[in-house]
Amino acid sequence: MIKKNISLKNYNTFGIDAKTKYFSEISNEKDLVEKIKKCKKTPFRILGEGSNILLTKDYNGFTFIIKNKGINILQENEYEIVVEVQAGENWHDFVLWALEKDYAGIENLALIPGTVGAAPIQNIGAYGMELKTVFKSCRALEIETLTFKIFNKKDCDFGYRSSIFKKELKEKIIITSVCFVLQKPPHKMNTDYDPLKNALKGKKNTIQNIADAVIDIRKSKLPDPSKIGNGGSFFKNPIINNDKFLKLKSKYPEIPNFFESSNKIKIPAAWLIEKIGYKGKRFGNAGIHNKQALVIVNYGNAKGRDILMLAKEIQDKILIHFGIKLESEVNLF
Ligand SMILES: Cc1cc2nc3c(=O)[nH]c(=O)nc-3n(C[C@H](O)[C@H](O)[C@H](O)COP(=O)(O)OP(=O)(O)OC[C@H]3O[C@@H](n4cnc5c(N)ncnc54)[C@H](O)[C@@H]3O)c2cc1C
């Protein structure tokens, strides 16, 4: 069914009340192809659960929401399974499915909002783990040719919160399903991330305990979008070269830093934002969360441009103070 002139307030976790001229949900691949074919002259865009977007204005085209469902095991042996998940499945529901069956590999990614289809777009990551570790391939519609293609891991150019789908193939393909390789017991778990290690002290390293610890940490730190609108981390953690890092360190000896690769150091953007005094600040309907400086929140009636202006102000201040250009993690529409 195609709806006209509807508000997307309930389709983005920022809760921004922006309109779309046309709106339709996609239930399977055939439905997708038919609807895209009809969009010869009308612009369109694809959304999952709208947890990584900021709607900055009304849209004079089609907004398609990916809703195809299904989880199927394709291969199985003593050590692992290959599972195909349809793009419209909720990511956390997939994590719960794996926990229930005792398949390991995605427990650190519990409670990340959004769909399975959007997960490869920015190579979702949390608590020392990234999607690329368990990703095998995805199936996607190439918009120009209307043919389906398979992208294997090596085709995806996964990086920190990035992939080929956010770069060269941005808005050129639509992911309809993703295949993952998950481990069967005995499991190899990743508990290196300090807050996770601390939360697991005295407990067994089971995938259920890891997921429970991750869920508790996330709930204590991140605002729940159903209570206060937000899009998770608004900015990526900047990666700078060694020379620049040493200059900053001489001025700010306490600067937190993480080794990324030779000559590349990752700096927590939240620290930079705290340092310019923005953590917990409110500007009308928009503000910076008081527990997590990376998260910009909508206190109720913010427009997309209020959030965007605040984000720009933060970017400008960080550039002036530290000479670092903060990149947005959230997709702007
Ligand atoms: C409270 C909160 C916490 C978060 N924590 C994390 C975290 O820990 N780690 C992390 O990595 N992310 C995190 N995020 C960001 C978000 O959860 C992920 O980016 C998620 O994968 C987005 O899924 P979505 O379905 O909501 O995508 P959307 O926001 O709907 O879309 C995101 C982008 O992907 C495109 N897209 C969506 N589906 C498809 C598809 N099927 N094919 C092609 N393109 C598509 C859209 O056009 C858009 O550009 C968080 C967000 C929130 C609100």
List keywords for this structure.
Uridine Diphospho-n-acetylenolpyruvylglucosamine Reductase, domain 1; 3 domains; Uridine Diphospho-n-acetylenolpyruvylglucosamine Reductase, domain 3; 23% helix; 5-stranded antiparallel β-sheet; 333 residues; 20 strands; Uridine Diphospho-n-acetylenolpyruvylglucosamine Reductase, domain 2; 4-stranded mixed β-sheet
Brief write-up:
This protein is 23% helix and 29% strand. It is α+β, with helices and mostly antiparallel strands and 333 residues long.
Number of helices: 7
Strand adjacency order, main sheet: 6-7-12-10-11
Largest sheet: 5 strands, antiparallel
Bound molecules: flavin-adenine dinucleotide
CATH topology of the largest domain: Uridine Diphospho-n-acetylenolpyruvylglucosamine Reductase, domain 3
CATH class descriptor of the largest domain: Alpha Beta
Number of strands: 20
Q: What share of the residues lie within helices?
A: 10-25%
Using the 3D structure, state the CATH architecture of the largest domain.
2-Layer Sandwich
Overall tally of structural domains? 3
Structural category is alpha+beta
Shape: globular
**What fraction strand?**
25-35%
Rounded to the nearest angstrom, the distance between the terminal CA atoms is 23 Å
Q: Which series of helices and strands comes N to C?
A: EEHEEEEEHEEEEEHHEEHEEHEEEHE
Report low-confidence residues grouped into runs of 5 or more.
none
Mean pLDDT across residues: 96
What does the radius of gyration come to? 20 Å
